[in-house]
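Quick one, probably user error.
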């Protein structure tokens, strides 16, 4: 239950953050909103690169599982679909991160993002950081309790008219006792746990 609440909060924060993260103007702007709209296949590759780079920056390496890409249509002021959608990719870190190692993890991620030229977003919490890449894509890392980490990358795309434009996750997420996905960390690592 805590993970679902944390996930919902992450989506809300990510959605609010991403709405203001895109570059303005240009041929890719959506309806004057200031969001950069990325081609669907380009967004797919970029989001995979964002989550892979972010978790790849962690030393030592962590175990993880990826969810499917999800597309959520964006509504305009009249509550109608404005033709765009926010495409997201979630990576769940399955290595437990202890309280003592939270700041080290976030420091490693922040250093990687700065080295890539990403703009760090202000106003995060002690357990969450987010950034915008120069191309308008975004990435957020959230650490929950008990030591679960979620990396979410997002981009604005033309609405693909389906919530799962690339089908199911490449490999199924671990399964919980209730039959749903189990994204809680289950691996211990002396360097992180």
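Nope, works fine. Designed sequence:
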């Amino acid at each position: 239950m805590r993970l679902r609440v944390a996930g919902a909060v992450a989506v809300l924060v990510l959605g609010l953050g991403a709405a203001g993260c895109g570059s303005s103007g240009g041929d890719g702007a959506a309806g004057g909103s200031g969001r950069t709209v990325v081609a669907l296949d380009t967004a797919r590759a970029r989001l995979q690169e964002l989550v892979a780079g972010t978790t790849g920056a962690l030393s030592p390496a962590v175990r993880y599982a990826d969810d499917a890409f999800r597309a959520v249509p964006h509504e305009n002021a009249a509550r109608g679909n404005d033709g765009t959608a926010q495409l997201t990719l979630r990576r769940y870190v399955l290595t437990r991160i202890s309280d003592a190692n939270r700041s080290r993890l976030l420091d490693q991620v922040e250093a990687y993002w700065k080295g890539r030229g990403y703009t760090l977003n202000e106003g995060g919490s002690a357990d969450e950081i987010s950034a915008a890449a120069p191309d308008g894509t975004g990435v957020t890392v959230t650490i929950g309790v008990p030591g679960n980490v979620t990396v979410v990358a997002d981009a604005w795309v033309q609405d693909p008219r389906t919530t799962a434009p690339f089908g199911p996750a490449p490999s199924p997420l671990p399964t919980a006792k209730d039959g749903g996905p189990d994204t809680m960390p289950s691996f211990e690592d002396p360097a992180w746990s």
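Residues 53 and 112 are 8 Å apart (CA to CA).
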